[in-house]
Design brief:
This protein is an alpha+beta fold. The protein has 2 domains: 19-158, Glutaredoxin (3-Layer(aba) Sandwich), CATH 3.40.30; 168-245, no CATH class. It is built from 4 helices and 14 strands. The protein has a 6-stranded mixed sheet, with helices on one face. Helix 2 links the parallel strand 3 (67-72) and strand 4. The longest helix is centred in the first third of the chain and has 17 residues, at 45-61. The radius of gyration is 18 Å and the shape is globular. The two termini are 25 Å apart. 39% of the residues are buried.
Length: 246
């Protein structure tokens, strides 16, 4: 979505915050290049689903001048720790710079309201466009190309539900704890911590630290029955559901 006015300046990154993949960055030093800022949380399924697009844009457009910056803003206690964020970035192959916003300092500067949230600033560091919530990938990439003066075929949707014209069905509500039972969704995810295995329908899924792991994936919105059993040393804090196409 285009910014309502062209005078909204990019907030600065406060000093003293931990960073991943760089020593630190200052927003005022990014003047002259487009900057894409993504608020995310490795413990939220919708954030994890967006990461392949952030990775691809970083790879496709960094040489043309785009700067991709992640703001890791935790929504759960287990995703507040900076070392946990570093481990998650390594596991999820996040190579662009990420600022660890454990106290939601950057979040408040932006007046942000949820995950994921994407803010694209022009070379003058004024807000060009933004997207709140899941999806909007093609729209964002075309806006990036507009700011860079490029015309390229945008990325193909990585999942059916990412297509701009996809009709999605609302999934089952998220559940607390090691929940098992009937659900409807495109994908079911388990929010876990510890070290050991999580039994999913009798299949052992390795757990090594806090993570949001896909435990049941479907090509489209489907009904299923989830059967989770955390092994010794593993805690399942909840189950999240993301939508699929109708």
């Amino acid at each position: 979505m285009r910014a309502p006015v062209d005078t909204i300046a990019a907030p600065p990154f406060p000093g003293g915050l931990p960073w991943v993949n760089v020593a630190s960055l200052r927003m005022d030093k990014q003047y002259g290049r487009p900057v894409l800022v993504e608020f995310w949380d490795f413990a939220r399924a919708l954030s994890v689903r967006a990461l392949p697009y952030l990775r691809a844009w970083h790879e496709r457009y960094a040489a043309d001048g785009l700067r991709v910056i992640g703001v890791h803003a935790p929504g759960f206690a287990l995703s507040r720790d900076a070392d946990a964020v570093r481990s998650a970035c390594a596991r999820l192959e996040v190579e662009h710079p990420v600022v660890v916003d454990s106290e939601l300092t950057v979040w408040r500067l932006y007046g942000n309201r949820g995950w994921p949230a994407r803010y694209l600033f022009g070379p003058d560091l004024r807000l060009h466009s933004y997207h709140l919530g899941p999806g909007g990938f093609q729209e964002t990439e075309l806006a990036i190309q507009d700011l860079l003066g490029l015309e390229r075929e945008p990325l193909a949707p990585m999942r059916p539900e990412d297509a701009p014209d996809a009709v999605l069905v609302a999934p089952t509500r998220d559940q607390e704890g090691a929940w098992s039972g009937p659900y409807e969704a495109g994908t079911a995810w388990a929010l876990v911590d510890g070290a050991g295995v999580l039994e999913v329908h009798g299949r052992a899924l390795a757990v090594d630290g806090p993570a949001c792991l896909a435990v049941a994936e479907h090509q489209r919105h489907s009904a299923g029955v989830l059967d989770l059993a955390p092994g010794p040393g593993v805690t399942c804090h909840g189950v999240q559901f993301t939508p699929g196409v109708a």
